[in-house]
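Narrative of accomplishments. A recurring question from our advisory board has been how the design workflow behaves on a single, concrete structure rather than in aggregate. To address it, we present the structure tokens for one chain from the evaluation set, followed by the sequence designed for it. No filtering or post-editing was applied between the two.
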């Protein structure tokens, strides 16, 4: 399972750029399928009324509840006094599993952090390079998980990104994602110092290509294929019962993208190898099984599996005229070969 933890959806009200105009998912879904991304976290584009925007995202999430997770977008200034109400509606009615806000709208407030604490939700907060706030968030709300996207700066501020690594190392409730990060050496340094469990895969779709972002994340240096990429502790403690779909914190877990992509490549490579190589590997695997005493037993087991596969293949092949002619010719040739063997 591969989760894209950063994607926008729906329409905005502004026309200053793609970020507040529209976030269509038609091309994103095609690209995500091609990249092997199975699940996506969605939240709204910039909007003047996030109650309307969250409702639109909830409609999109409910159209594919097995694929999408929703985050409630809030504005600490415009939504002052109703943040708790918006979050409650998002959790209990829409089935959302997190909170999203952006410093472009307004800085984070205690009201938002208190709502996140009350519903045990993670907070994805784009700090726009002001990573020093992580020190205050970690100290004031140690029981709330904060995701700082873009490694702290979408604007490629390497000073802020390097500074965020220190917060990732020191604070257990500070996380980040890979969306839009272009300095691979800093991203690799973050993994080496903070560990892969503190870094989420995100694409910032649909405006950034999820396949490109995923390929970048696979290649930047995560070399151990058994590492967990999307930490289940992000959602720890959440006990809401959403109407759209029940999602518990323990159900959100993801292997390293390297292991996912590597396993797909391995299966594709094995499918294209010669039958002799596949047979030898199968023999080695069966030799390790105590039920097979010698190589003759292994050979008989392989032949049995081969016959079963051929029977399944024949059962699903289209029995058109051309297929019947070929099958009849093969049967006649096989019978002729058997008669010559008996005569000899």
């Amino acid at each position: 399972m591969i989760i894209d933890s950063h994607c926008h959806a729906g329409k905005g009200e502004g026309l200053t750029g793609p970020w507040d105009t529209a976030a269509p998912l038609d091309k994103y879904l095609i690209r995500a399928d091609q990249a092997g991304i199975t699940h996506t976290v969605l939240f709204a584009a910039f909007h003047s009324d996030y109650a309307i925007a969250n409702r639109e995202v909830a409609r999109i999430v409910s159209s594919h509840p097995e694929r999408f997770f929703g985050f409630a977008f809030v504005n600490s200034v415009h939504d002052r006094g109703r943040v708790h109400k918006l979050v409650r509606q998002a959790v209990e009615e829409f089935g959302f599993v997190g909170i999203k806000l952006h410093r472009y709208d307004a800085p984070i407030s205690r009201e938002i952090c208190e709502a996140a604490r009350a519903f045990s939700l993670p907070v994805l907060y784009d700090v726009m390079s002001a990573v020093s706030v992580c020190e205050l968030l970690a100290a004031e709300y140690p029981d709330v998980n904060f995701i700082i996207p873009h490694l702290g700066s979408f604007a490629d501020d390497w000073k802020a990104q390097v500074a965020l690594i220190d917060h990732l190392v020191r604070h257990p409730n500070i996380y980040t994602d890979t969306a839009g990060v272009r300095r691979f050496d800093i991203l690799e340094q973050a993994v080496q110092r903070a560990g892969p469990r503190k870094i989420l895969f995100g694409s910032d779709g649909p405006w950034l290509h999820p396949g490109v972002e995923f390929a970048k994340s696979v290649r930047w240096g995560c070399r151990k294929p058994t590492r967990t990429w999307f930490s289940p502790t992000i959602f720890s403690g959440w006990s809401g019962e959403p109407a759209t779909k029940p999602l518990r914190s323990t159900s959100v877990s993801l292997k390293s993208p390297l292991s996912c992509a590597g396993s797909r490549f391995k299966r594709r490579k094995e499918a294209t190898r010669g039958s002799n190589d596949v047979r030898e590997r199968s023999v080695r695997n069966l030799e390790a099984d105590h039920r097979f005493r010698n190589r003759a037993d292994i050979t008989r087991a392989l032949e049995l599996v081969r016959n079963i596969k051929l029977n399944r293949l024949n059962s699903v092949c289209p029995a058109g005229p051309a297929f019947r002619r070929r099958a009849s010719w093969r049967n006649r040739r096989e019978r002729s070969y058997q008669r010559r063997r008996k005569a000899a």
